């Protein structure tokens, strides 16, 4: 058993466990914390793939920004004392059924496909260092320059939208 | 350098991704708290991102990672707007229970 | 030139109809009546012109207006044929029509719908002309149907009375039953000859190769049509009820013109009927029996118009008797003389009814001789004519019929003679009860008795004069009518030289008529007998008075089952069918109601459905292959 495989298994288990605990725990704050841990483990997976840039960006964006947003919102709404009422049994049953079905379906799909034999393709070039990533991302001919700019516009719009949506209305009471 | 998948194998990543995705769906359907639903959606997005990176390594192609980059950007924007909406709903209704959002009935 | 005049002849009454329909109310009563009358007078002038032309040249006028139907080998066009027969009919239809229009101007003067009346009358004349001048059976059928329609409209003219509406419906429906027979006859003939034109059919039949059974069937069906239109057994019960219409209508339609359409049709198709002697026998027998039955009913009727109606049926029966023995010219002769005196009788009775402000029961009349001399004189002349007294018109024509009957079938002669004796009796009964002895009505009516205005009495005088001299057209010596109709009638027609047998028969007929008159005189004038009230009539008289309960029989046999059937459809079938149709709507509604539950508004359900959908698509795409 290669050591990388063992690391993979530990990380995978951690990911799945934290993901499950996210949805299972009652307290939203606990869910948020578990989710942060889940993101960290996924960043660990990215590091296994030698995608350093993405790993760091993942941590910054997800754990650093998104989860902070979540936590702010939870605390804004004062939800940590919430006690959720049980959903009707039929819904829970439906959810569990769907979970089983979907996972089975997707796994089966994979299992029925062609099994992979032999060596994995290895191009002996650099394909995922930051330099290469930057070249691909910002190349205006066959890169992703235009989507990059649009993404910035998207973020601007999202920002404006978020500010507008959460503005308090000036009531005339 | 060597493809790390030689040691781990792509099937494992596919299984992991699928399971994570299904956990995300389970969370969406199971919980009634809108915040937790959002979190589950983030789990689903992450599962997909993981798979993209795995296949980027499989094909030795940087385009997979570039897509993850954009996916993250969009996810961030989405969370921002979604949480703003949620705050708005909370101000109007007083709770974030999604079974209270039944105005589209009929 | 001829074309234009023919169109003028045909269309002037129609133009009169249109005028009265659209402008009649605004134009006022006098103008409406004048336009209506002038339209028919123009047609009369045209027919007179063509008659004189035909007399001079001897060639019939044949005009084709339009090509109409062309299906396979069958070709029918809108053609007009003005030959001897149609011109003869045209003359007396338009002539008597004009007189009756003139009469109606005064008679219908107080009615607020006078313009409508003249519109209908003009429409009727138009359709009657179409019937008479048609060059093929189909154009004749158009006229046939049209006069039936106008009869319905005119009988039910005073439509506020439901009984009159029922009478109109009865007339129309019975006519329709006959028309069904007519149509079947037309179909058979069209199938056999691929043409319905009279001239062409005559040529085709003279080749002599047609299937006689089919011909017999066609002839029988055509005769059924004639029984409907001309009120023979068993389709005669509409005619007495049709007296519900105004008196000019009864005079024009149900005495002189429409009811003679059946005889016209059979005379037109004489070449067909000559080839089917069995059908001719049937015609003769039906005619004779109708004459007898109708005369017997007329003996006891108390409504002045009903007596005249039954006498019309009886006289038509005599005409059919003549047709059934192949003596077409004799029947035509009687049609013409009958038109004169029957129209005069009806118009006279109208004058009486008008003077008594609507009273029609003879038991309440009497002694009108002094108050209405012109009416009395003209009606007396016409009654003498219908009874067959020398030298009035009816004597000549009726005698011819009885002579022909005597030669062919003695039994039919006896029946015809008895009918004639009864005719004399009840017609004079009518005269005595109406005009003689003392007035039996109310005091108020007595004070208002006066002779009718000149517009009413003038037609009466003209018609009475015609009834007197009408016999001249076919006196046994000159026989102008027989010669005139020679080109039309294919078969033989012997002229009766006046031998001893003929004189003897004439004597018998005359004696019988005089016996009838004297008997009536004895009963109604010497004895002063007045018929009893309706409730007091009993026994055989009651049966005859109630028209042998034929109407009730028809109701039992036909109307009640039909009503039951339609009731069944209304109460059972229609709700079932309606339920099925509505059921579809209800089903759609229910389905949509169930579907509405999907829109529950719960986001969880929507997400669930979303995931299930994705699952289904994914499994289909990847697993099911």
Describe the protein in words:
- Chain A contains six helices and no strands.
- With 173 residues, chain A is mainly α.
- The longest helix of chain A has 25 residues.
- The N and C termini of chain A lie far apart (71 Å).
- Chain B is built from four helices and no strands.
- In chain B, helix 2 runs antiparallel to helix 3 and helix 3 runs antiparallel to helix 4.
- Among the domains of chain C are: 196 residues, no CATH class; 71 residues, no CATH class.
- In chain C, strand 1 and strand 2 form a beta hairpin.
- In chain C, helix 3 packs antiparallel against helix 4, helix 3 packs parallel to helix 15 and helix 13 packs parallel to helix 18.
- At the A-B interface, helix 1, helix 2, helix 3, helix 4 and helix 5 of A face helix 1, helix 2, helix 3 and helix 4 of B.
Q: In this structure, how is the largest beta sheet of chain A organized?
A: none
Shape verdict of chain C: globular
Number of helices of chain A: 6
Number of strands of chain C: 2
Interface with most residues: A-B, 83 and 76 residues
Percentage of residues in DSSP E strands of chain C: under 5%
CATH topology of the largest domain in chain A: Four Helix Bundle (Hemerythrin (Met), subunit A)
Q: So how many helices of chain C?
A: 25
Please describe the structure with a list of short key phrases separated by commas or semicolons.
heterotrimer, A: 173 residues, mainly alpha, Four Helix Bundle (Hemerythrin (Met), subunit A), 3 domains, B: 106 residues, Helix Hairpins, 0% strand, elongated
Write the SSE topology.
The complex is a heterotrimer of chains A (173), B (106) and C (625).
Chain A: H1 3-24, H2 28-48, H3 52-76, H4 89-112, H5 130-138, H6 145-165
Helix pairs in contact in A: 1-2, 2-3
Chain B: H1 5-8, H2 10-30, H3 34-59, H4 63-93
Chain C: H1 2-27, H2 29-57, E1 61-71, E2 74-82, H3 84-107, H4 114-133, H5 137-155, H6 162-193, H7 198-206, H8 212-229, H9 238-241, H10 247-256, H11 261-268, H12 270-273, H13 277-298, H14 304-324, H15 328-355, H16 373-387, H17 393-408, H18 410-435, H19 443-447, H20 454-469, H21 480-484, H22 500-526, H23 539-545, H24 550-596, H25 603-623
Antiparallel strand pairs in C: 1-2
């Amino acid at each position: 058993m290669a050591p990388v495989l063992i690391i993979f298994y530990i990380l995978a288990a951690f990911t799945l466990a934290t993901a499950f605990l996210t949805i299972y725990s009652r307290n939203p704050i606990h869910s948020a914390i578990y989710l942060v841990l889940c993101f960290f483990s996924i960043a660990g997976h990215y590091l296994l793939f030698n995608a350093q840039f993405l790993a760091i960006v993942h941590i910054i964006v997800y754990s650093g920004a998104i989860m902070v947003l979540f936590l702010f919102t939870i605390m804004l709404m004062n939800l940590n004392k919430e006690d959720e009422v049980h959903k009707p049994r039929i819904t829970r049953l439906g959810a569990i059924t769907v979970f089983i079905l979907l996972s089975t379906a997707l796994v089966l799909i994979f299992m029925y496909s062609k099994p992979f034999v032999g060596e994995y393709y290895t191009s002996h070039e650099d394909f995922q260092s930051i330099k290469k990533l930057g070249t691909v991302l910002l190349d205006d001919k066959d890169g992703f320059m235009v989507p990059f700019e649009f993404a910035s516009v998207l973020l601007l719009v999202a920002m404006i939208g978020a500010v507008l949506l959460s503005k308090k209305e000036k009531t005339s009471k | 350098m060597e493809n790390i998948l030689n040691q781990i194998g792509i099937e494992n990543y596919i299984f992991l991704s699928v399971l994570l995705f299904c956990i995300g769906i389970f969370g969406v359907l199971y919980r009634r708290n809108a915040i937790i639903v959002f979190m589950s959606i983030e789990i689903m997005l992450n599962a997909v991102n993981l798979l993209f990176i795995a296949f980027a390594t499989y094909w030795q192609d940087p385009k997979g990672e570039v897509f993850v980059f954009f996916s993250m950007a969009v996810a961030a924007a989405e969370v921002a707007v979604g949480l703003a909406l949620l705050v708005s709903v909370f101000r109007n209704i007083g709770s974030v229970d999604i079974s209270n959002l039944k105005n589209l009935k009929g | 030139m001829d074309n234009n005049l023919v169109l003028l002849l045909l269309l002037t009454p129609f133009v009169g109809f249109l005028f009265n329909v659209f402008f009649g109310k605004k134009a006022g009563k006098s103008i409406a009546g004048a336009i209506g009358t002038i339209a028919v007078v123009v047609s009369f002038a045209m027919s007179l012109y063509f008659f004189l032309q035909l007399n001079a040249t001897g060639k019939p006028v044949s005009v084709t207006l339009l090509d109409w139907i062309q299906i396979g080998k069958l070709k029918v066009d809108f053609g007009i044929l003005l030959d001897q027969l149609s011109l003869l009919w045209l003359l007396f239809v338009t002539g008597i029509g004009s007189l009756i229009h003139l009469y109606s101007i005064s008679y219908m003067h107080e009615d607020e719908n006078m313009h409508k009346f003249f519109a209908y009358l003009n429409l009727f004349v138009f359709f009657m002309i179409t019937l008479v001048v048609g060059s093929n059976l189909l154009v004749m059928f158009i006229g046939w149907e049209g006069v039936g329609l106008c009869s319905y409209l005119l009988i039910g003219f005073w439509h506020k009375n439901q009984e009159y509406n029922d009478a109109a419906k009865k007339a129309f429906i019975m006519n329709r039953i006959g028309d069904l027979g007519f149509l079947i006859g037309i179909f058979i003939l069209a199938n056999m000859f691929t043409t319905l034109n009279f001239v062409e059919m005559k040529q085709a039949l003279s080749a002599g190769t047609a299937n006689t059974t089919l011909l017999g069937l066609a002839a029988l069906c055509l005769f059924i049509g004639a029984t409907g239109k001309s009120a023979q057994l068993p389709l005669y019960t509409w005619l007495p009820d049709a007296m519900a219409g105004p008196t000019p209508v009864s005079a024009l339609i149900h005495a002189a013109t429409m009811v003679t359409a059946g005889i016209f049709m059979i005379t037109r198709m004489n070449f067909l009927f000559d080839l089917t002697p069995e059908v001719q026998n049937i015609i003769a027998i039906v005619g004779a029996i109708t004459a007898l039955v109708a005369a017997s009913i007329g003996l006891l009727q108390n409504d002045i118009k009903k007596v005249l109606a039954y006498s019309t049926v009886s006289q038509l029966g005599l005409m059919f008797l003549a047709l059934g023995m192949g003596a077409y010219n004799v029947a035509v002769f009687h049609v013409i003389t009958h038109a004169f005196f029957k129209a005069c009788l009806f118009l006279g009775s109208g004058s009486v009814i008008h003077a008594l402000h609507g009273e029609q029961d003879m038991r309440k009349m009497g002694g009108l001789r002094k108050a209405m001399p012109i009416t009395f004189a003209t009606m007396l002349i016409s009654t003498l004519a219908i009874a067959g007294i020398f030298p009035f018109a009816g004597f000549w024509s009726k005698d011819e019929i009885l002579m022909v009957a005597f030669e062919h079938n003695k039994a039919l002669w006896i029946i015809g003679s008895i009918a004639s004796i009864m005719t004399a009796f009840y017609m004079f009964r009518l005269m005595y009860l109406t005009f003689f002895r003392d007035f039996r009505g109310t005091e108020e009516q007595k004070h208002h008795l006066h002779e009718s205005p000149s517009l009413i009495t003038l037609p009466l005088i003209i018609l009475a004069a015609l009834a007197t001299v009408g016999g001249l057209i076919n006196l046994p010596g000159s026989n102008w009518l027989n010669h005139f109709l020679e080109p039309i009638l294919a078969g033989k027609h012997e002229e009766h030289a006046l031998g001893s047998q003929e004189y003897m028969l004439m004597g018998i007929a005359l004696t019988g008529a005089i016996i009838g008159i004297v008997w009536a005189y004895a009963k109604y004038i010497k004895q002063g007998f007045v018929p009893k009230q309706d409730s007091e009539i009993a026994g055989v008289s009651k049966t005859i008075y109630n028209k042998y309960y034929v109407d009730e029989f028809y109701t039992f046999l036909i109307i009640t089952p039909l009503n039951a059937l339609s009731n069944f459809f209304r109460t059972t079938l229609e709700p079932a069918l309606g339920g099925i149709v509505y059921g579809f709507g209800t089903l759609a509604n229910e389905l949509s109601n169930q579907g509405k539950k999907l829109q529950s508004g719960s986001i969880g359900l929507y997400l669930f459905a979303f995931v299930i959908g994705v699952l289904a698509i994914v499994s289909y795409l990847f697993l099911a292959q």
